[in-house]
């Protein structure tokens, strides 16, 4: 497929699907950011992040019983439980694994094949295939259980993090974010039917930032996730 920009910009060639990203609809990454490209392959204009009226960074304080202080960009400092919508229920636990354990864990993860996902991500999924609309689950025919590294990691997390008594794993996903592809995960609400009230993550390879957004108050809260931290 060849497409030229409406503004007279040079034509671009769209390769076969195997050479493109896996974005659909409004999802986007660096490979499909060009609007002429998106029109040629049937993608919608990407939807940018909402413009928050207030943006702050959450810093946890162990002495405050799980609450933290939100440092807003304009200078205000507010306790996370005093926000218009109290920000509660999130833990960030630093250094859940050592540097050596991280190296070994990443080596085990890389031993499994990566599949392209939306918004520039690469992924590995271990678990049932879900139909969220009908609330149906089906185990893949090739299902053999979680990879060995997952069991050791879960043991470490249960030891390091409070509140995981009785936690059962429904699915394991490894997500790879490549900055050169502008890989991202759009704002969304996780489904509690399959995953329940608790989702655990570990930031490996580098530090990252988790952003929460409340539409009613137009407030965005950034949560720094240090390398090797659990949340």
> What's the total number of strands?
12
Question: Oligomeric form of this entry?
Answer: single chain
- Strand proportion: 15-25%
- Percent helix range: 10-25%
Structural class per helix/strand content?
alpha+beta
Give the uncertain stretches in residue-range form: 1-18
Spatial shape: globular
How many helix segments?
A: 4
Mean pLDDT: 86
- The radius of gyration over CA amounts to 20 Å
What order do the helices and strands follow? EEHEEEHEEEEHEHEE
Question: First CA to last CA: what distance?
Answer: 43 Å
If strands are numbered along the chain, what order do they take across the biggest sheet? 5-4-3-12-11
**What about the largest sheet?**
5 strands, mixed
In short:
By secondary structure, this protein is α+β, with helices and mostly antiparallel strands. Helix content is 16%, strand content 22%.
List the helices and strands and how they pair.
Layout: E1 2-3, E2 12-13, H1 35-41, E3 54-60, E4 68-72, E5 77-79, H2 99-110, E6 115-116, E7 122-126, E8 129-131, E9 136-138, H3 148-160, E10 172-176, H4 192-195, E11 208-214, E12 219-225
Tell me what you see in this structure.
The structure is a single chain. This protein has 231 residues and is of the alpha+beta class. 16% of the residues lie in helices and 22% in strands. It has a five-stranded mixed sheet, with no helix packed on it. Strands 6-7-10 form a three-stranded antiparallel sheet, with no helix packed on it. Strands 1-2 form a two-stranded antiparallel sheet. A hairpin with a 7-residue loop joins strand 3 and strand 4 (68-72). The longest helix has 13 residues, at 148-160.
């Amino acid at each position: 497929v060849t497409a030229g920009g409406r503004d007279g910009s040079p034509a671009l060639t769209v390769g076969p699907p195997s050479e493109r990203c896996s974005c659909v609809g409004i999802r986007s990454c660096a490979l499909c950011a060009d609007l002429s490209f998106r029109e040629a392959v049937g993608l919608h204009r990407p939807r940018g992040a909402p413009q928050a009226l207030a943006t702050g960074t959450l810093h946890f304080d162990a002495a405050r019983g799980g609450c933290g202080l939100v440092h807003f960009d304009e200078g205000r400092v507010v306790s996370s439980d005093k926000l218009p919508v109290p920000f509660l229920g999130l833990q960030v636990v630093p250094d859940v694994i050592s540097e050596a354990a991280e190296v070994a864990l990443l080596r085990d993860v890389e031993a499994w094949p990566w599949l392209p996902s939306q918004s520039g991500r690469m992924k590995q999924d271990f678990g049932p295939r879900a139909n969220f609309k009908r609330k149906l689950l089906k185990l893949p025919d090739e299902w053999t259980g979680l990879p060995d590294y997952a069991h050791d990691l879960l043991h470490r997390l249960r030891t390091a993090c409070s509140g995981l008594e009785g936690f059962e794993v429904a699915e394991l996903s490894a997500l790879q974010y490549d900055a050169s592809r502008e890989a991202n995960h759009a704002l969304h609400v996780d489904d509690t039917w399959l995953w329940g009230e608790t989702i655990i993550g570990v930031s490996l390879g580098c530090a990252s930032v988790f952003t929460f957004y409340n539409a009613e108050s137009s407030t965005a809260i950034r949560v720094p996730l240090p390398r090797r931290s659990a949340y």
